[in-house]
Amino acid sequence: MAKSFKSEFVKFYKEKLDPYGFKKVKGPQPYFARLVNGEIVHIITYRGVRTNTPGYKSFELNCGIASIYRKRIRFDVTPDSNSYCLKCNTTMEELKDHYYRISIKKRKFYDFKYTEETMQMALEKSLIEAKFIIEQLDKYTDMESTLEFFMKHNGGFNVTFSDLLSDSFSDEEGLYYARREFDAALIEKCFSDMKKDVELIEDEYDKEFYKKELYNGCEERFVTNRKNFQADEELYNEGMKTLQQRKEDNLKMLKEYKVI
Questions:
Q1: DSSP string for residues in 139-204
Q2: b/e string for 207-228 if b means 16 or more Cβ within 10 A?
Q3: Which of 55, 32, 53 lies closest to 44, judged by CA?
Q4: Residues 6+ apart with CB under 8 A from 158
Q5: What radius of gyration do the chain's Cα atoms show?
Q6: Which of 147, 233, 142 is nearest to 187 (CA)?
Q7: Backbone dihedral angles phi then psi of residue 62, each to the nearest 5 degrees
Q8: Model pTM greater than 0.70?
Q9: Each residue of 66-114: pLDDT tens digit?
Q10: DSSP bridge pairs for 44
């Protein structure tokens, strides 16, 4: 019987990730997750990628961060279907110190080729990258530090506050960061660091593109939407109730998935 790469991946990483607190998520999908400080969910998995080498398949390690305040943490879909919130290790390496890819030099794409006979060897080789990913995830252990991750790796998608003035509240972590108790100075710091970083981009086309995006009222929209949401007492209270319900629902879900 042909060996299943997914089964081999789960078997290999179940042992390797256990010392770091990662648990295999219950179910058919190859997710490993850990809950940090009762709020932050670190995720490691893999995705298959194309290879031009005849007779070989290839995979890359992916990771992500979610919080218990998210509308829904998705472990019921494949990593391919969940790709918008997962990042490959190459991306993590490029942005570990910056908000943008600074250098015009392209980093090596860390994919791992294998055949049925060399699966184990490929998995062993990928362990170096897994340890790098864990090293990066270790930096984000609370909602304050994780704001930087969302701004850096998701382009602010998780915290745009664009839906705070509707009844959908579909921004991923937006409701949490819109809380009156959350320090707005941390949002300001992210934008300040982004403005410093954009000046370091070597490629002039990229620099102008991101400068235009960054200086075209992006920060002002963040601030305005957040203030308007907080000023609407009825909407704000509804949002806070929704936030609490998400917390309860996600913690229950993590128990069902055997993460906690």
A1: T--SHHHHHHHHHHHSTTGGG--TTTTSS---SSSHHHHTSTTS-HHHHHHHHHHHHHHHTT-SSH
A2: beebeeebeeeebeebeebbee
A3: 32
A4: 150, 171, 172, 173, 174
A5: 20
A6: 147
A7: -125, 155
A8: yes
A9: 999 999 999 999 999 988 889 998 889 889 999 999 988 776 667 899 9
A10: 32, 63
